[in-house]
């Protein structure tokens, strides 16, 4: 009898069920999408924050002081220690290698520009680096360089516009990029050749960075090493990594930790533990966070995550309310039916059980439909805003279903209680 | 549900009272009585309306204000505009004051003067003269063990410290034959070029080297367009200097801000839509529930227009009251979120009120029209018979 009651109720009052069903489906869809976006937003914004540039720098352990004012290096060229270029692919072998977005080695060399140009008589800094260099570590092939770690560097023909004639040099070429202010000073343009320490180098483009590089020449690393006469030498390496905002554990000294705490620290992607791991794989190196980038991204990230969490709570609240309102309306409309059942001798318990069973069925159907719709919605948001997938964790499904059932029950409970308490006589007479 | 209120009075009394009562039109009285007699249903419809309006207000307020809040966060990244004197020259002495007067009090501008000095054993080291109070506000990420408070105290970069003062002892530097005795106040750690430098108070630095500031770093507030305008203004003010945006900071900020704004926009839309759905569900029930009123009005000869107008006016009134109450609650919620997440209150924006009001009334009207459309097709007699 009981299943038949439920079945008939769905069959005969399809329209009324539809409204409640739609409310549940939409509510669950919004909740699913928002939870998925909120859980993934940290990772997504973290990647966007990488456009601020590298957050770690690796230098030789025994380095001498940098003597640099306004982008001009005043240090004797062969002074100080170097890292070995051959060690760099090992960065991909660290524990958190998936979190390492890219790295760029830098080798500044002080050069004299030849030729008749008056302005060129002064010393100029030439920086060797990777632009988009293919490397391999173990079986893994990857490319890295300033195009990944320094996304604000722009190459143009000197007018700020991108053009096919003015391009990034190849990493194995003898072509260089000329900083934008240096180019104006020297009155050189792409295609011209530049006499650098007796070498004829072709300018493949004008580089604009808004930083010290605007007064420098940027060349492939191998070329800078040839000019300096130190094959395989690298002065410093900038590493761009996805990190977790710093907390109390992050800033502790690993030497004073117990083994368990140390494991937890080592296996968390803090900027400090990634620096520690970089030091492990690159011999005689010192890795340090670039505080301007690393410290601030933590704050920005936690603010945005906090904001999304609060917005998600608002969305959950609104969905819960919508579901409750729809359920209350659906039940309130059926007072006559309840009156009839009670007049025929049904107890409060049976009537409540019937309505809860209906609510459960609605919650299950609406929940499944809403979850699928929400997953689609989250994917759409991910694709249109971040150009990448927002993944839905499978563990979300039982959580969402539990919430859907709970909210549907909570929304129905008050209405069911009132409906059951209602005197069947009034209900049947159509009053109230 | 309730006993009929007029049952307590004789028809004569009621007629007298009504005759003496201030004249309210039948239409208005019907509206009022409907709300009073079905308090419970009216309250639940109103509650849904208020909640929806509150959530919508809070989201709109946040959406507008969060961008300003995030921009303030982004200013912690430091300067976004750098003013550099032509090579080998210094900026005019009043440059800093002029920059500040042009950009307003909220903008931070910090002067920097550079010189290459020698340590006792002949090593070169870059010495910077600056205003410590301002530098401290601008570069919040600097990790400093102790800020100098006496003129001959210096802030020493981590790596420079290893060279000039490994045991934190006082040290001597020479610049073009002039020597100065300095005491280390604290260590500076940034992970960048600053680690190799020594920072001095500007006046002490200028007395010693005679070098005036050649760089001013500016943290300009505002949108990208406002910062561009500031740059143009500065270029007019200081024609001899080179003024450039720090692209690394500006582009990073624009990128993150755009993505956050888009996400917030999508989320706000979803939340507002859900709230509207909540109102729709409640109001449909509330109008359906009153189908007997509808039928009686029609049976007594009310025209289609009057009945529709009555329900529409009722819904609109509900929308207006809900929007007003919801608006103030929403502003409170937005202010709370601002305090919790950004540690600064969200400024209430009354400009969103017309949108909230229009939206609320529109949703209420739609929710009322849907069931009326269905009811219109039914004969009043059938409804009154309770079928």
What is the CA-based Rg of chain B, rounded? 35 Å
Oligomer: heterodimer
Q: How many beta-strand runs of chain A?
A: 16
Largest sheet of chain B: 6 strands, mixed, barrel
- Mean model confidence by pLDDT of chain A: 85
Ends apart, CA distance between termini of chain B: 19 Å
What would a concise description of this structure say?
The complex is a heterodimer of chains A (432) and B (387). Chain A is α+β, with helices and mostly antiparallel strands.
Structure report:
The complex is a heterodimer of chains A (432) and B (387). Chain A contains 12 helices and 16 strands. Chain A has helices at residues 2-12, 14-49, 146-149, 180-186, 221-228, 259-266, 271-281, 291-332, 335-343, 348-386, 396-421, 424-429; strands spanning 56-60, 68-69, 72-73, 83-84, 100-112, 123-129, 133-137, 140-144, 154-156, 175-179, 193-196, 199-208, 217-220, 233-234, 236-241, 285-289. In chain A, helix 2 (14-49) runs parallel beside helix 10 and helix 8 packs parallel to helix 11 (396-421). Chain B has helices at 11-20, 26-37, 39-74, 95-103, 132-138, 158-164, 202-209, 224-237, 247-289, 291-299, 304-342, 353-376, 380-384, and strands at residues 81-85, 108-119, 124-130, 143-144, 153-157, 171-175, 178-189, 197-201, 215-219, 241-245. Chain B folds into 2 domains: 25-72 and 256-384, no CATH class; 80-245, no CATH class. In chain B, helix 3 runs parallel beside helix 11 (304-342) and helix 4 runs antiparallel to helix 8. With 387 residues, chain B is an alpha+beta fold. In chain B, a hairpin with a 2-residue loop joins strand 6 (171-175) and strand 7. At the A-B interface, helix 2, strand 2, helix 8 and helix 10 of A face helix 3, strand 3, helix 6, strand 10 and helix 9 of B.
Provide the fold topology.
The complex is a heterodimer of chains A (432) and B (387).
Chain A: H1 2-12, H2 14-49, E1 56-60, E2 68-69, E3 72-73, E4 83-84, E5 100-112, E6 123-129, E7 133-137, E8 140-144, H3 146-149, E9 154-156, E10 175-179, H4 180-186, E11 193-196, E12 199-208, E13 217-220, H5 221-228, E14 233-234, E15 236-241, H6 259-266, H7 271-281, E16 285-289, H8 291-332, H9 335-343, H10 348-386, H11 396-421, H12 424-429
Parallel strand pairs in A: 6-13, 10-12
Antiparallel strand pairs in A: 1-15, 1-16, 2-3, 4-14, 5-6, 5-15, 7-8, 9-12, 10-13, 11-12
Helix pairs in contact in A: 1-10, 2-8, 2-10, 2-11, 8-11, 10-11
Chain B: H1 11-20, H2 26-37, H3 39-74, E1 81-85, H4 95-103, E2 108-119, E3 124-130, H5 132-138, E4 143-144, E5 153-157, H6 158-164, E6 171-175, E7 178-189, E8 197-201, H7 202-209, E9 215-219, H8 224-237, E10 241-245, H9 247-289, H10 291-299, H11 304-342, H12 353-376, H13 380-384
Parallel strand pairs in B: 3-8, 5-7
Antiparallel strand pairs in B: 1-9, 1-10, 2-3, 2-6, 2-9, 4-7, 5-8, 6-7
